[in-house]
Amino acid sequence: MSGNSAVVVGGGIGGLAAAIGLRLAGWDVTVVERADVLDDAGAGISLAANGMRALGALGVGEAVEAAARRQYTGGTRTPDGRRLAAMDGAALERELGAPIVGIPRAALHRILREALPATSLVIGSEVTEVTEVTEGDTTRPPRVRVGVGGTTLEADLLVAADGINSRLRRRLFPTHPGPVHSGSTVLRAITERPVDGLKADFEITWGHGAEFGHIAFPDGTAEWHAVLNAPAGVRYRDPLTEVRRRFGRWHEPIPSLLAATRPEAVLHHDVSELATPLPSYVSGRVALLGDAAHAMTPHLGQGACQALEDAVTLAAALAEARTVEDALARYDAARRPRSQTVARDARRAGRMGQQLAHPLAVGLRNAAIRLTPPGAMVRTVLRHADWTPPRIVPRAAWTQTDDAA
């Protein structure tokens, strides 16, 4: 090991991936998660080729593929079942050299956690203090002092992967407006049992200001999500009954998915985003990553993929650069333009897709999609998923002379 140490705040997908990458780069890593229990069940996720490539660079790609279902079939439909666009996942895999897969979040979290030593995870603790210290020696680079549940940790780097409501982001950028409501709310669940007749691997149906989609898993169960235009804070006494009221007459397999769901399994949260881009993803020896840096709407399915890209890029920069400061500058220059572009395009996709409500506008959108050549649709996907990860090749052990140069 190089002797360099990092504290990662947040035990979600981005934080765990960053910890794996930093360890590959030769760093000692501690992950701090304030939740007492890592409750990552109840939802699923699609990972595009860029996310899978990132996982491959972290050494966990094969394990994820083994626990996932490749998304070869499906597409986009209208509530009465008419096809707007077909999905050809096999063609996309040939183009990109990596599949699109669907996996329960719980399985992905488990794989990422198992790639780390159990001793590197500090669960049920909250970061209470973050300061940079020099300890009177100006020839040595500063370190980050982190207060965690009554204990003080010192590290060469702090990674803020503490989600959309990041406390560390608020501390570093106090004038930034923070997350805002996107205009949508989402209800989602994983079915209790396999769903008969579930043919499509991944499918989205667009109505008027509403979307219903599903991700099929290897065992025949599926995650479904229902996205609605709604003000922030709207909640339903019986969420599953409300989803059945809104979507129960839409085409199969939607009624069957809802019939295979337990009421208590339904999760409900508003969709928020960082609509105002951050001016930087770094501050001193702190790097922001994932939703803490660029929370986006889910309409391109790129949120987790961008966090995984962040993790690999950060680790590769730290493995290659001579100083932490140089590495963080490289990380910011590489990640901020791309991730903020993807976030902007996700917002636009939502406005032209799920959030579109006026009947005339919906009709025009549907007609335009039907008239779009399949090749153009593929290129739209490739634009976001075509990403090659940098290699994480650790340098020889850093010395204080190197770091102070």
Structure commentary:
This protein has a domain of 242 residues: 3-Layer(bba) Sandwich (FAD/NAD(P)-binding domain). Strand 15 and strand 16 form a beta hairpin. The protein has 14 helices and 19 strands. The protein has a 7-stranded mixed sheet with strand order 6-5-14-15-16-13-17. A 6-stranded mixed sheet has the order 8-2-1-12-19-18. The radius of gyration is 22 Å and the shape is globular. It is of the alpha/beta class. Helix 1 runs parallel beside helix 10, helix 2 runs parallel beside helix 10 and helix 10 packs antiparallel against helix 11. The C terminus is likely disordered.
Itemize the secondary structure elements and their pairings:
Layout: E1 5-9, H1 13-24, E2 28-33, E3 44-47, H2 49-57, H3 61-67, E4 69-70, E5 74-77, E6 83-86, H4 89-96, E7 101-104, H5 105-114, E8 121-123, E9 127-133, E10 143-148, E11 151-155, E12 157-160, H6 167-172, E13 180-190, E14 202-206, E15 210-216, E16 222-229, H7 239-247, H8 254-259, E17 267-273, E18 282-283, E19 286-288, H9 291-294, H10 303-320, H11 324-352, H12 359-371, H13 374-385, H14 400-404
Parallel strand pairs: 1-2, 1-12, 2-8, 5-14, 12-19
Antiparallel strand pairs: 3-7, 4-7, 5-6, 9-10, 10-11, 13-16, 13-17, 14-15, 15-16, 18-19
Helix pairs in contact: 1-5, 1-10, 2-3, 2-10, 10-11
